[in-house]
Every structure is written in structure tokens, then in C-alpha cells.
Write a structure and sequence with these properties.
By secondary structure, this protein is α+β, with helices and mostly antiparallel strands. The protein has helices spanning 18-29, 48-51, 65-76, 93-103, 107-114, 175-188, 242-248, 268-275, 341-344, 365-368, 376-381, 391-395, 405-414, 424-440, 514-531, and strands at residues 5-14, 34-37, 55-57, 119-124, 141-145, 194-195, 199-205, 211-218, 221-233, 257-259, 280-281, 286-298, 301-305, 315-318, 359-364, 400-402, 461-473, 476-477, 484-486, 492-498. 26% of the residues lie in helices and 22% in strands. A hairpin with a 5-residue loop joins strand 7 and strand 8 (211-218).
Length: 536
């Protein structure tokens, strides 16, 4: 390391995504001097928040707050819905749910206060309709926009999935780009400095074990950030950290998983906090389903793609042997789309294999010709070129092609991740049965939505391997409702706070838009409490 630079502020925020932005804004508005440290360079700063669909929960302010707390409790821990045996973490769930009821109804108003030009449109309600409080809470999901357009939100959609988001003007910005632009505006109007291209490496502790700063590096030089009041870790999960994935994720953590969020999320905050004595909570928790992945590597790990073609007509998903195992629309639709990966984790205890890793998207020429089967906007952030008509991906070998289903089975068997397990007769029988269900208008095996039933019948036929994955991990640092990072005895590590996917509150189930919502709600809590610490 070269020469040292030293900076000082009341509150140092590590990581600029939704949680970091909200924490910094709230700390500033509470009277603190704030500085943000961001690993990515400014001209290539693509956080998961920016790459997201820009959706966030903002229950109606006139909703029943007791019902809202009950609904939040069900999502966070599940302890109030009965027959709950999943072993999730109940500690602090009541406090988190109460804060959610108190603060989440202000999420939309908070965003609008950051930029008067920012707009939002209501696109959803409570996804878990059977949970207590789902209806009475006035639950609402908003989508970020500057144009006011509401035509773009489809399922997990990103608006126009074919036009690169970075080409949009301010008035055209939608979804994650709109959310990010609003956050940037909120920081700029407060003159909160952001130090880009600075990677935090370790926390600085005083003799009593309190966090008093951050040691970082920039262009090979050491940078010291002294915090007079506190440090807030909002630097994301561990999607692109091979060792953490192998340690935390079930199944083959490195090669059976893929993520389509930012490759900058390498678990830095988790590593730093662990060295300072932090505990972990549900480190294996992820927002994931089954998605396509390409052989291109980032940090040594293959890149995932948001596979929007799954669940559309003229497509099915099968295991390594050729059998369907779920209604395909469940993979891409709330409420199951962000924990469907658990279906793929089935382990064959006799043969000691994972028959659904990878799974296989089987589709025909009708879907192939209808447009890209992956989200091109999200792929563009990771510099993955798929092609608007899927043909480039076909040329690269990312999509397998054959003139018959039987030939397609043979192509799949040749794929190294199938290990020769695809059974020709079984796949052919599966496709024949599914096509008959389409003709009858009903799927008796898995009750797939009737409006998504379309036969796999027009040659050529195609296949794509699907791996467990999605936008982000959710498990990580253990934190209480004040958003203080806790050690393994649940004692707070003094002056250390956290929010966002590095320490998500969604430890039972997850509804789309929840990550940004918790970033707004609990990022503000973390920033406010860090700013309230006595100055050193």
C-alpha cells in the first residue's frame, strides 16, 4: 500500500445502494456530517438497487397498522401463521414488524420528498393473501418512474426489456434507473459526498471494541475514514464471493448457483464485521428461483440472467431426467418466485445427486421467435450480449437446438452439467402430455395457469440449463431493530449499524419489492441511530 489519505465525518456509510443512500440522507437530516464510501467507480456504478425493477412496498398510510404489523411478522419470521417448522429466526421479529408498521407507510412519500419530479405508480398489493393482515393492512407495492408510465411492469418486469436502461433520458427513466436517479438527487441536494472507487477493507476499532472508522484502499493506496459517531454497513451480499457461497449456500454453492445482480457484491461488509466479532443470521437465505446462466465469468463465477421466458406459453421446465416438477409460472410469479430455489434443491438420497440441478427450460420455435427469453436490460449491466432475437446466444452455444424432442434430449445429455442423465423417452412423454394439457386447457399435474398454457410443438426445439439463483443473497449480519450489528451473544458492536441485503429482515418468505422497501425503512433507521451516537 502507498501513502495514506485521511477523511473524517460523523457517520461513514459503506456502500451506495438504496440502503446506503437512505441511511446517509437520514443521518444528514438528523444533523450529522456524512460521507459515503462506494467500491465501484462512478462511471460504472451499478448497484443491485439500480439494476432492480424499482419496486418497493409502501402500505397506504390509512391502512390498519396492527394488521400491517401482523403481515410483516408473517413475512419476516412466520411465527404467527401456525405450523411453522422452518427454523427461521424469531428474535427481534416483533420489533422489526412494529417498525415496519410505523415507518413503511411513509416509504413512497420519502422517495417523493427526495425529488419533486420523481413519480411512482401502484402495481401490487399483498402477495401472501392468506397471511394475517394482508387485506386490512392496505398493503401496496409501488414502481419507480419519472415518466409516470405504468405499461412496463409485467410480473418481475423491468419495463422495456429490450432497450438498454442507460440510454434513457431523465424523463424516460423507469424502474431501478428511476429509483437510483431519485436517490442521487436526494444526496446531491444535501451535498453528501460520495467517494467512488474506494474499497473498504476493515473496520477500525478503539481499545474498547467500538467501531471508530474504516480502513479502505483506492488505486493501491490506503485511505482512512474516521467516524466520530458511527459506521453503517450497506454494501450488499455475497453473490460473487466463491468461498462464502460454498460456506453458506446449500448444494454446490459455486457452480449450481448464479446471480444476475451486481458482480461487485463480494461480501466485503460481512467479512469486515466478522473480524470485528459480528454474528450471522440465516446466512443461507437468498432471493432466488431457477434462472439461466452463461459461461462468462465474473470473479470466477458464472453470470446469471433474469429468465423472463420461463412460465410463458410454449415452454416447460424439466429436471435432469426429463420430468416436470412444478407449475412453471410459479418460478416467475409472486409469491413463490423468490424462494422457488428450494424446489430445485431436492436431493436424491439413494443416488446422491441433485436431480433438478440444473433444471432445463424446454421451448419451441414459437417462443424463440417471440423475442428475448432473458431480460436484456439486466444482462446489459453485466456486459452480457444475448441478442434481441436469441440468435446470438444460440450461436454461442448458450441455447441448445434440435429438430425433434428426441434429438434435443441427446443434446442435453451431451451437456457437461447433465452428466448423461436426460432420458429421451421420458422427455418425449413429458412434452406429449403437456401438449395434451394445452389442448384441453388444464394442467392436472401441477395446475399451471391456463393463460400460460401453450404447446411445445413447433420445430426447431430449444433447451437452456437453469441454475438456482436470482438477484441477491439476503442472509448475513445479525442485527436488532435498531439496526445495530450484534455479536454471537447478541450484544451490540458499539457504533456499528447495518441495513439492506447484507442483513435482510425477510428471513421467512419474500415478496418482490421487499429489498428496496427494507432499504428505505431500515436504512433510515440505521442512519438515524448512527447519527444519534455521542461524538468521539
Amino acid at each position: 500500500m502507498g501513502t495514506r489519505a485521511i477523511y473524517e465525518a460523523d457517520v461513514i456509510v459503506v456502500g451506495f445502494g438504496a440502503a446506503g443512500g437512505c441511511a446517509a440522507i437520514e443521518a444528514h437530516d438528523a444533523g450529522a456530517d456524512v460521507l459515503i464510501v462506494e467500491k465501484q467507480p462512478q462511471d460504472a456504478h451499478y448497484s443491485n438497487s439500480r439494476m432492480s425493477g424499482g419496486g418497493y412496498h409502501s402500505p397506504r398510510p390509512d391502512g390498519d397498522r396492527a394488521a400491517l404489523k401482523a403481515y410483516a411478522m408473517a413475512m419476516f419470521s412466520g411465527e404467527n401463521i401456525g405450523n411453522h417448522l422452518d427454523g427461521e429466526v424469531h428474535d427481534f421479529a416483533d420489533d422489526h414488524a412494529q417498525l415496519w408498521a410505523d415507518l413503511a407507510p411513509d416509504n413512497d412519500a420519502f422517495m417523493r420528498r427526495l425529488d419533486p419530479q420523481f413519480n411512482s405508480v401502484e402495481v401490487g398489493a399483498a402477495a401472501f393473501r392468506h397471511f394475517p393482515g394482508a387485506v386490512e393492512s392496505g398493503y401496496s407495492v409501488m414502481r419507480s418512474t419519472y415518466s409516470g408510465n405504468n405499461d412496463g411492469w409485467v410480473g418481475p418486469g423491468w419495463g422495456d426489456k429490450n432497450t438498454p436502461a442507460l440510454s434513457h433520458t431523465r424523463s424516460e427513466q423507469e424502474n431501478g434507473e428511476a429509483f437510483h436517479a431519485c436517490m442521487v438527487t436526494g444526496l446531491a441536494t444535501r451535498n453528501i459526498p460520495i467517494h467512488y472507487g474506494v474499497r473498504a477493507r476493515s473496520l477500525i476499532l478503539d481499545d474498547a471494541g467500538a467501531v471508530v472508522g474504516v480502513k479502505a484502499e483506492r488505486d493501491g493506496n490506503t485511505v482512512i475514514y474516521r467516524a466520530r459517531r458511527g459506521v453503517v454497513l450497506t454494501c450488499g451480499g455475497y453473490e460473487y464471493n466463491r468461498r462464502m457461497r460454498q460456506a453458506f449456500l446449500d448444494g454446490p454453492g459455486a457452480e449450481a448457483w448464479a446471480f444476475y445482480g451486481t458482480s461487485a457484491n463480494t461480501g466485503d461488509g460481512i467479512e469486515m464485521a466478522l473480524r470485528a466479532g459480528a454474528g450471522l443470521t440465516k446466512a443461507s437465505s437468498v432471493a432466488a428461483r431457477v434462472i439461466a446462466a452463461v459461461p462468462e465469468r465474473r470473479n470466477g463465477l458464472k453470470v446469471g440472467l433474469n429468465t423472463t421466458g420461463i412460465g410463458k406459453p410454449n415452454e416447460i421446465v424439466v429436471d435432469n431426467h426429463g420430468s416436470r416438477y412444478a407449475a412453471e409460472r410459479r418460478i416467475t410469479k409472486d409469491p413463490s418466485r423468490y424462494f422457488f430455489y428450494k424446489e430445485a434443491l431436492q436431493f436424491d438420497t439413494v443416488n446422491l445427486t441433485y436431480p433438478r440441478i440444473p433444471s432445463w427450460m424446454i421451448f419451441d420455435a414459437t417462443l424463440m421467435e417471440a423475442g428475448p427469453v432473458v431480460n436484456l436490460v439486466v444482462a446489459s449491466y453485466n456486459a452480457v450480449e444475448w441478442g434481441s432475437d436469441n440468435r446470438l446466444a444460440l450461436e454461442k452455444g448458450w441455447i441448445l437446438q434440435a429438430q425433434t424432442i428426441e434429438e434435443l434430449a441427446a443434446r442435453i445429455r451431451e451437456h457437461p452439467d447433465n452428466h448423461g442423465r436426460m432420458e429421451t423417452e421420458r422427455l418425449a412423454t413429458t412434452v406429449t402430455a403437456y401438449n395434451a394439457y394445452c389442448a384441453a386447457g388444464a394442467d392436472p399435474d401441477f395446475q399451471r395457469q391456463s393463460d400460460t398454457l401453450g404447446p411445445v410443438a413447433k420445430a426447431p426445439f430449444y433447451a437452456i440449463p437453469l441454475y438456482m439463483g436470482g438477484p441477491n443473497t439476503k442472509g448475513g449480519l445479525r442485527a436488532n431493530a435498531r439496526r445495530q450489528v450484534l455479536d454471537w451473544q447478541d450484544e451490540p458492536i458499539a457504533r456499528l449499524y447495518t441495513a439492506g441485503e447484507i442483513a435482510s429482515v425477510f428471513q421467512f418468505v419474500y415478496q418482490g419489492g421487499g429489498n428496496l422497501a427494507e432499504c428505505i425503512t431500515f436504512g433510515r433507521v440505521a442512519g438515524r441511530n448512527a447519527a444519534a451516537e455521542p461524538a468521539l
